[in-house]
Every structure is written in C-alpha cells, then in structure tokens.
Amino acid sequence: MITKDALWIVAEFEGTRIAPVTLQLLTKARAIANGRTVAAVLLETPAQTGEETLAQYGPDEIIVAQDEAFQNASDRTQAEQLTALIKANQPNTILFGATPEGRSLAPRVQDQLETGLTADCLDFYYEQDLLVAVKPSYGDNVMCEIVCPDRRPQMASVRPNTFAAKKATGAARIERVDATAAADSACVMQKTAVKIAATTSLSGARKIIALGRGANKDAVIEGVRKVADKLGASVGVSRPLTDRPDFTAEQQIGQSGVTVSPDLILNLGISGAVQYQVGMSSSKLVISVNRDSKAPIMVQSDYVWTGDAAALVAALQDLL
Amino acid sequence: MKIVVCIKQVPGSNRVSFDPITHNLVREGMAGRMNPFDENAIEAAVRLREQVGGEVVLLSMGPDATKETLHDGMAMGADSAYLLSSRAFAGSDTLATGYILAQAIRKIGAIDLILFGRQAVDADTGQVGPIVATELDLPQATFAEKIQPLDAQHVVVNRDLGAVTQTVQLTLPAVITVRAEANQPRYESPVAIQQSLTKPLTTWTDQDLTLDASRIGQAGSPTIVRKVYAPEPTTRAAKPLPQDPKEAAKALLDILQAQGLL
Ligand SMILES: Cc1cc2nc3c(=O)[nH]c(=O)nc-3n(C[C@H](O)[C@H](O)[C@H](O)COP(=O)(O)OP(=O)(O)OC[C@H]3O[C@@H](n4cnc5c(N)ncnc54)[C@H](O)[C@@H]3O)c2cc1C
Ligand SMILES: Nc1ncnc2c1ncn2[C@@H]1O[C@H](COP(=O)(O)O)[C@@H](O)[C@H]1O
To answer: What separation in Å is there between the alpha carbon of B7 and the centre of ligand 2?
Structure first.
C-alpha cells in the first residue's frame, strides 16, 4: 500500500546514475518530515535499477514504475505518468530537483493538478501542514517565502547542491506500480548525449579551488591546476574568467552557474559578489585569498589571507 | 508558419533594495524592459519566418506600459502584437498567467509554434511555457539551443539540459522555450523602429477572452508570497593566516590536514 499524505521526491537520472540532487532532497526531506512518510518516485526502464541507490538514502517508500516506454520518454509522457500516480495516491508535498529536467516536468504536473509550484528553492520547511518554500528572486538579490495554503499537493523544485546527501539506514518498502502513460508520437527523441562525465563535474566536487579576476593570469592558473591535482580538487571560476577560452560556463560558480557545497573551497582573487556567494555559501570550509582585506568574500570565510594570490599559489606549489 | 512568441516585461534592473523604515522593496530603474531571454525567443521566431515564411505574433500579459516592450519586439521583426491587460488579471501567479495566455492563444488560432524565453529574470521560474503547453495539450522542448524547421509539420530541436543534450523532433503545433545560447538577438535599426509603430497592436481585456473566473488573478493563483526580505550575508570567523606567504601556505595545509582534507 502506498501511504497517503506523504512527502514525495521525484527521482531523476543523470546519465545512468541517480542524480545527486535526488539524494540531497531525500536527506533533507527526512530531516524535516516530522513523522510524515518520505517516498521517492522513480520512472525507469527495465535496464535501470535506481531503487538500489535510493534505498541507501533512507526513504520509507520507493514507488517504481518500470517500463520500456520511459526510454526517451517525452516531458508530456513523464508528466502524465506522475500526475496519474499523484491523483491515485494523494501525496501532501512533491519536490523536484530544480534541474532543467525537473523544471520542465514540474510545471506540467502542476497545471494538470491546478496547484501551486515554487521554483528553484534554496530552503524549505513545514509549519504544521504548510510547506514554506524559500526562493531567491531578482537575480538572488531578494529572498521570498512562498506558501500554497489552500490546495494540495504543494509543490516545489529545489536548487541542486543546496543540501548535502547523507546515507541512512532503514528498510525502504518498494511499491511497484504499472506504467500507464502512452508514448508521445509528437515528440520523438532522435539523439541524446551525456555532456560532461558526471563524476568530474564541479557540482559534485568535494574540494574546489576557485579563481576570480584577481587570479586571472596564465602562470597563476597553471600553478593552481598543479596544486589542484595534488589536492584532488576541482577548479572552478567566477564569472569574469569564463571569458577565457580555457574555462566554460560549466565551471562557473554562482547564481547563473553551478551551486556547490564542497568540504573545502579555496577562493583566489574573488571579491564575493552576492551572485557568487549564493553559489558557494553552504561549503563546509571556506578559505579566501584577496589582496584587499575588506573584500566582501573575507567575512564569508573561515580563514583568510590578505595578499597576492600568485604568491600563495607559488608557496603551495613549493610545499606540495 | 504562424508563430506566437510570449514575452514579458520585467523591471529595468535587478538591483533592489529595502526601505529601511517600511521594509518594502524598492526597485531601482523603474522603467521596464523586455525579459532578455524573450529577445532570444523573438530572434528565433524571426529567423524561422525568414527560412520558411509565415508570421510572428507577440503576446504579453501586463499593464499598459507593456506596449513599449511589444513595440520593441515588433522593431526586432515581429509582425503584430497582442496585449492582455485587465484589472482582473492582477495578482496572477504562473498558473493563472499560463491559463490566460493559453486562452488568448486559442483565440488567436491556427498557431504552429509557441515560443517562450527560458525563464523570466525577475522571479526565475520558467514555468509559464510548460504550463501553456499543458493547457493546450501540446508537446514541448524546453531549454532549446537550436531550432530547425523540417517540413510543414515538424521542427527539430536541440535541448541543452545541463548534464545531457537531446535532439527531439516535434510535431506541430508545439511549445519551445529558448536559451540565450540559441542566437544573438539583432539590434533594432531606426527604420525597423519606425516601421514597428505602424504594425498592429491589439489590446484584449478579460471580456475579450473565454475565461473561467476562478482561474485568473488572485483567485486562480494558489501560491502566496508571504514575505520578501534581503538575504542575510553569511559571516564566518575570517581568521587570518600568517602574513608570510610560505608560512600561510604551511598553515593552510595544516588546517586541511587537521580536517582530514589532505
Ligand atoms: C544576474 C547576474 C548573475 C551573475 N551570476 C554570477 C555567477 O553565477 N557567478 C559569478 O561569479 N558572478 C556572477 N555575476 C557577476 C558578479 O556580480 C560579479 O561581477 C563577479 O562575481 C565578480 O567576479 P570576481 O570576484 O572574480 O571579480 P572582481 O569583483 O573584479 O573581484 C576581483 C577580486 O580580486 C582581488 N584581487 C585583485 N588582484 C589580486 C591579486 N593579485 N591577488 C589577490 N587578490 C586580487 C580584488 O581585490 C577583488 O576583490 C552575476 C551578475 C549578475 C548581474
Ligand atoms: N505575463 C506574461 N506575458 C507573456 N509571456 C509571459 C508572461 N510571463 C511569462 N511569460 C513567458 O514565459 C517565460 C517564462 O517566464 P517565467 O515562468 O515567469 O519564468 C517568459 O520568458 C515569457 O516567454
């Protein structure tokens, strides 16, 4: 039996594995559920077995619809399948990752249910039965609290890497359901390609060295790459450095780039504009180097060094 | 090909501040402008028309001042525009907005393609496009970076979904939301601006559309913004490392070592 009035996380694949944001949402959902059943909902093909990964992050239930039809299924097909499951089982709350995929499906589901959906949240919590979704607006310059008081389910999409995923024990009950949605002849997939190897992507990195305009010199960047190699860190950048041919938008941290929450971020020559800050503020240990001791990044850091980024990078290279 | 492009007027600047006494939001640069992603949607539409013929119709819901943005869009090459403006629309969230736009698109009629910007830069939701697609039961390709016409019934769209890219073939009519990477919007030439002033701009109120009163404005909007505030800057200890670079580097590595990060 699928539990009614539950908190659902719509699981997403990234390539062949479950997307990190799904696991992050499971961990956060468990923390705020306060007795409410947490369920992961998974649409997959028979070749995929996402439920094994999901189970390690402690949902009470995993609702699985397995069907060949989900191979290259259109947004419409997936949304219709989710809507049918929701209508039949009446969850209280549904969360999606605010990935391009989640942001494409969630509003279709929302419209079919005629309920509220808050996009791209940075935080969420319950007040009794009411989900309070906290989202930035105006380019992250303001924060809003948005609620959906009168209709259910209440829905939100949540920005990836805002929460850390933690494995959890406990046996998830697996509920298998039949796929009912028809294939969409009006939207035919011709080709799909995985763009970045998910494991090397910045968003999942545990250690990051981030370069800003104050570290925009070939010699410094070369030195940083060596230090990063030694430390097992990934290299990220602030927006100005994406103008360089050797960095792309995929390496940009911040509001219009990726959000990261590594164990360590070392900021070199970054001023700490609000649009950068929101992309890294949940990092565990923040160390920043800037020649201006009053740069805004400094008070956002656990440790600071005031001086030339090039000198510190050179010293690190010598020691490693 | 008859293409509708939905465009939104957004505040001229995202620089907002809070009145220290009233705690209300103060927007600088009050004059509105076109949502930047919508410029990409118009550019994509105009290029499709240049390739296969047809017409480009702009559609926007908003106050009277939105006419300026619609004229800008016609100066970029769109042929005509509709403004949906009524007190009854005030307070519409994305669900109500999507419903009203969908009803207007039904009334315009005989549409092959409906284009949207990837998202509006004020609230950053990107929900209105998929909502309109669902209202009209149409297929969609969101986050499009390339749109190629195939024949009278089909377009091929490259979607960039971050971790993956997809090429999908859509049967028309269909909905597409357009990324900034799709094109470089053209500048409005003085001649184009002059011409835009003579292009037809029609205003419809709630009376002109077939609308369920419970689905528009505040009544049709399930979400409520109950609080708006400035994000609190996180502050941390900012402990200084030793001034000498060599000692600083050593201290840094010691910290990493102590925290199990080496
Ligand atoms: C809508 C919008 C979205 C945005 N999205 C993003 C985003 O996602 N990510 C992002 O990063 N930005 C984003 N920005 C831009 C952001 O506002 C800042 O302009 C940007 O982050 C600044 O980058 P920076 O800190 O590298 O450069 P700067 O602000 O120029 O700072 C350079 C810093 O380096 C220091 N410095 C200079 N020389 C040295 C040296 N030799 N050694 C040590 N320190 C030195 C300086 O003191 C200064 O603090 C966005 C802006 C807007 C309007
Ligand atoms: N009021 C509106 N009138 C016309 N189009 C709109 C309106 N609001 C949003 N849109 C369209 O929907 C897209 C996504 O907006 P949003 O869902 O608000 O982020 C925009 O880029 C526009 O193409």
So the answer is: 6
Average pLDDT over residues A289-308: 96
Cα of A314 vs centre of ligand 1, distance in Å, is 22
Ligand nearest to C-alpha A244: 1
Name the E strands within chain A: 7-10, 13-14, 17-18, 38-44, 61-66, 93-97, 117-121, 123-127, 130-137, 142-147, 154-158, 173-177, 187-194, 207-211, 234-237, 264-268, 285-290, 303-306
CB B83 within 8 A of CB B60: yes
Task: Find the residue in B nearest to A186 (Cα).
Answer: B171
Ligand 1 midpoint to CA A237 (Å): 9
* CATH fold group of domain B2-215: Rossmann fold (3.40.50)
- Structure pTM? 0.85
Domain ranges of chain B: 2-215
Cβ proximity of B10 and B122 under 8 Å = yes
The CB of B116 under 6 Å from ligand 2? The reply is yes
For ligand 1, atom 26, which residue shows the shortest CA distance? A212
| Chain A interface includes B100 (CB < 8 A) | no
**What's the average model confidence in pLDDT over B140-150?**
97
Alpha carbons B13 and B36: distance in angstroms, whole number: 11
Range of the domain at A281: 207-319
Q: pLDDT by residue (tens digit) across B66-90?
A: 999 999 999 999 999 999 999 999 9
Please indicate whether, in this complex, the C-beta atoms of B249 and A315 are within 8 angstroms of each other.
Answer: yes
